[in-house]
Amino acid sequence: MVGLANRACDRCRKRKIKCDFADPCFCCRTSSQACSYDVPIRKRGPKGPRDQRRQRNRTPVTPTDATLPGVPPQYSDGLLLLEKLRTELNDAIAQEQPSVPISTIAQLCISIRCHRSFPIVHERSLRADATYFFGAEGECFPTSIGQHGTKHGLALMRSFTVLTVLCAAQSFLFAKTTIQYGEAVGPKFLAAARAMFHYNEDVDRQTPDATSLQVRMLLSTCIQQHTGESGLAYHLVNEASLIARRLRLYRESVVSQYPPLEATLLRNAFWSLYSADSSAICCQNRAVILYEPLFDAEMDLQGPALNQVPLLDCEREGCMGTLEFGLLQSFHYLRRTWGNASRLLLSIRQLGRMKRERSDFDPAQLMRNREMYIDFSESLDDIPAILQPSKPLSQDASLSTAERSSFISLRYRLLSTYYFSKLMIIHECRVLGFALVVGLRDDDDVLASEEVNVARDYIYTLQSVEFHVLQELGEPGIELMRSVGSVLLAVSQGSDGRNKQRAVSQLNVLLDILARLDSQASEKLTAQLSVDAAIEFNTSPHDVASE
């Protein structure tokens, strides 16, 4: 046995006992067996970087009992991961909230999302997915995957991602109101959604569909609401916008080629992203992707199309046919408001650049901006009838409780968006010296007074609704408040006398609202505005925030 004199035999190595290196050794002699040396020797100690890379890059050989019958190999690993995530999520939610089943939480999150916001998801499909993943059907989950085969490959992973990220988003948004346990269960849903999303991310980019946009929009909401940080949230929504632009969803001829339900989902997702980019132009808080001059063809996508498929399940209790109609009407009014404001602001900024570069510029463009502002101002006349400020929704017996609550929230969004956009336009004109655009004389005190007037209207709108409505709008709503606070602070620092007093008074009201919201971002924003105001008025930040 040349070369084996100092090597333990296979039997001793397996039993992890000391070999005496005899032939046969003591262990083998007592078993009446000959020593064998067939098992190769492995290197001892931790693996080096090269070994770890080789191990990662080596294609795993999936054992027979770890594959799913009837499922192609490229989906098998993902579906096994899905089952693992589903099981772990069930266990985690049961541990955090043992009194409320995960299926009940999912159904509640679906109701809130579908009945409070512009529909970008299909309610019946989501509820069926919730029953499938978290209900009694889920007990035979691995078997059902194998029975359905390819139907539950990529589509099943996407459905799970949409469902879990939606539950996460609603849990975070409504943690202080409807979903009291949202802060506990939200991170669990988010972790499962992100794990499934990252596994499937490359394939999803190569072959995107409506869920690709839905997941990124909802993930953006989750990240911003959970952490209060905007960077990653903006990256996700920009990626969704980039996919929408790559698919050319701004063309009616493109969207109409899809099956009716998918076309409706893509149409609504595009308009939601387009509206978000328009608001970003007004706020100047991130880069935008869906900007019409960058499109390779004219944007002719319709709002609600003739073959629009209903996305809400209006056969459910508490949901009448007027709800989806009201949601669509209010959203497209919001979209037009953001769109008109963003186009006017871009035109004003372009005029400002021309003014800086040379003293002479086309006066006709100034008048065109004036006409655009008049059109914008008149848009308040076009608020949908059911959401008119004069209509007493709380006393309307024709509305269900869900509809009444939704329409009150929608009315607030319409009015606050209008006043916010108007304030940003007036502020831009004041900074650049274009008072004529907003119909005022070129007097800084007059413009500052008008800024305070519009900011006051915006703050009155905040005060006109129950506080939970402000909480449920989340971090994006707080960002708008921050921008209004910045304008008021600028007026207080740049004006004297009455304008300064009025700006300080309104700023204190806004700081109080931000402090009560007690969100991730509002703490930073309140502190920032309080410190700036304290420096200006030579007081302590605490005194400014509590006046």
UniProtKB/TrEMBL annotation:
Keyword Metal-binding belongs to the record: yes
InterPro entries assigned to the protein according to its UniProt record, in alphabetical order: AtrR-like (IPR050987), XnlR_reg_dom (IPR007219), Zn2-C6_fun-type_DNA-bd_sf (IPR036864), Zn2Cys6_DnaBD (IPR001138)
UniProt-listed GO biological process terms: DNA-templated transcription
The entry's keywords: Metal-binding, Nucleus
One Pfam family of this chain: Zn_clus
Coiled-coil annotated spans: none
Region span, Disordered: 39-68
Residue ranges of every copy of the Zn(2)-C6 fungal-type domain listed in the record: 8-37
Any one GO molecular function term: zinc ion binding
The protein, known as: Zn(2)-C6 fungal-type domain-containing protein
